[in-house]
Amino acid sequence: MEQKLNKPFIRIGITSIIFIFIVMCLSVFALLSVNSASQSYASVRRAADAASAYYAADSQAQIWIHQVKSEGEAGGNVLRRDFPISDSQTLQVALDGSTFRILSYQVVNNEVLEIDDSLPVWQGEEELQ
Predict the structure, then answer these.
(1) Tens-place pLDDT, residues 103-114
(2) Reading across the β-sheet that carries 89-96, which strands appear in turn?
(3) Assuming Cys at both sites, which of 2, 83, 91, 94 could form a disulfide with 103, CB separation 3.0 to 4.6 Å?
(4) How many Å apart are CA 38 and CA 129, to the nearest integer?
(5) Is the pLDDT of residue 56 over 60?
(6) Is the pLDDT at 127 greater than 90, yes or no?
(7) Could you tell me the CA-to-CA distances from 81 to 3, 91, 126 in Å, in that order?
C-alpha cells in the first residue's frame, strides 16, 4: 500500500471570500461617507454664501439709513430703496422721511414661482361615472 504523503492542507477558500466581502463592504461604506460629506459641504457652502449676501445687503441698507439720518429731514414722504441680495432676492427698505422710523425692512423674491400642475394628481373629489 502506498502511504499518502502528509502535506499540510490549508483551507483558505471561505476565509478569502469572507475577507474580500468585508473589504468590499468597507470600501462601499467609505465611498458613501465621502459622497455624503461632499453633499453636506456643498449645502453648507450655499447657506453660508446666502447668509453672506444677505448681510452684505443689510450692511448697505444700514449705511444708507445712517446717511439719510445724517443729512437731516427729508420731508414727510416715504423713502424707499432696494438692495440686491442675489438674482432672485432683494432687500427692500422703507423709511419715514420726517421721523426716520423704519416702515418696512423685508426680503422680497424677484421671481414669480409657477406651480407645475401637469401631473394628473387626485384633488380629493370622486369621479362620477
Answers:
(1) 999 999 988 878
(2) 78-84, 89-96, 102-109
(3) 94
(4) 53
(5) yes
(6) no
(7) 103, 8, 51
Question: Cα–Cα distance between 67 and 72 in angstroms, integer?
Answer: 9
Q: Which three cell numbers mark 94?
A: 422703507
Name the 3-class secondary structure at 75.
coil
Cell of 96: 419715514
pTM of the shown model = 0.65
Collect all residues with Cβ–Cβ distance below 8 Å to 107 and sequence separation of at least 6.
54, 85, 89, 90, 91, 92
Whether residue 105 contacts residue 61, with contact meaning beta carbons closer than 8 Å, is answered with yes
Please state the rounded mean pLDDT for residues 65-92.
Answer: 87
Cell readout for 90 is 432683494
Average pLDDT of the chain is 86
Task: Give the cell for residue 3.
Answer: 502511504
